[in-house]
Amino acid sequence: MLDKIDLNQKIEKATYKQIMPTLANRLYTIQKLSWDANIPVIILFEGWDAAGKGTSIQKLTQHLDPRGYKLYPIRAARTYEKKRPWLWRFWLKIPRLGEWVIFDRSWYGRVLVERVENLIPEREWRRAYRDIVDFERTLADDGYLIIKFFLHISREEQKRRFKKLTKDPLTAWHVTAEDWEHHRNYDEWTLAYEEAFERTETEWGPWTIVEATDRRHTWVKIYKTVINTLEPALGLESEPLEPTPKTTPVSEEHASQPEWRVEEEQAEVISGE
Predict the structure, then answer these.
(1) Residues 6+ apart with CB under 8 A from 110
(2) 264 lies in a domain?
(3) Can you give the residue range of the structural domain that contains 78?
(4) CA distance 206 to 214
(5) Cα angle at 117 between 112 and 123, to 5 degrees?
(6) What is the three-state SS of 93-126?
(7) How far apart are CA 73 and CA 45, in angstroms?
(8) Does residue 256 belong to any structural domain of this protein?
(9) Which of 12-26, 163-177, 200-214, 217-231 has the lowest mean pLDDT?
(10) How far is Cα 19 from Cα 12, in angstroms, rounded to an integer?
(11) Are 145 and 38 spatial neighbours (Cβ–Cβ below 8 Å)?
């Protein structure tokens, strides 16, 4: 599945500057309307190390009212959390009515990192697929909107970003030996991701695969997905998000150009969950 995704997509800078103000205004408006309508929203981000999750979340939240959302970066469960049902800590973080909650990684760590790194028995991560679907179905039945993003980059692009981060003393700490180990196991991670998509793709919790080679394309797709998901729930007529950005293949020189400024490329390279 992932190998069929066209990662060579790019939005020109001029087009991006033309459409982003409209998208930002629409995003802010629907956040306010969802608050007034008591519609809770869950947005989660999964993806490859260095795919741009951190910067994408930063870009999304900069146009939101900070009083109306919470952000949770998810790490490995703590000792006291391990003594309770594994989804317990996520139930504590679901949004109030009208609120948005954004997860930087999520409960999918159970069937991703905990699976690939053999942190739990196979029977537990296999059972987790059912737990996740039931969890999301329960939330959806109670009126929650669930938006799931997976930021996808190629093995070669991940390696390029790792090398760029390690060359700068200020960012080298982001890339650890464990991250390189994850990179070497790219195929194994791909298998885990694809099975997670297959087992947890539902009408109430669909996955959106974001081609994340070009940051402008990444951000525009995230904004459009959120807007297009919430507008029907709010009873709004979807208006064309024009002008349609011009999408072109990423040039061969992309890897050598400073297109990703350091502060924008610092998607959290997270070890573990």
Answers:
(1) 86, 120, 124, 125, 128, 131, 132
(2) no
(3) 2-236
(4) 23
(5) 70
(6) CCCCCCCEEEEECCHHHHHCHHHHCCCCCHHHHH
(7) 10
(8) no
(9) 163-177
(10) 11
(11) no
Any bridge partners for residue 71, and if so which? 102
Pairing of strands 247-248, 10-11: antiparallel
- CATH code of the domain in which 211 resides: 3.40.50.300
Torsion on CA atoms 10, 14, 18, 21, rounded to nearest 10:
80
Which among 124, 177, 139, 175 is positioned nearest to 43, based on CA atoms? 139
The residue type found at 4 is: K
What tokens appear for 159 in the block? 């390696």
With tokens 């996955």, the residue in question is 207
How far apart CA 49 and CA 32 sit, in angstroms, is: 32
Is 243 a member of any domain? no
Pairing state of beta strands 145-152 and 207-211? parallel
Confidence of residue 240 (pLDDT cuts 50, 70, 90): low
Question: What are the two backbone dihedrals, phi and then psi, of residue 170, each rounded to the nearest 5 degrees?
Answer: -75, -20
Contacts of 127 (CB under 8 A, 6+ apart): none
Within a domain: 248 = no
- 61, 28 in Cβ contact below 8 A? no
| Sign of the four-CA dihedral 56, 100, 113, 221 | negative
* Structural domains of the chain, count: 1
- pLDDT by residue (tens digit) across 27-65? 999 999 999 999 999 999 999 999 999 999 999 999 999
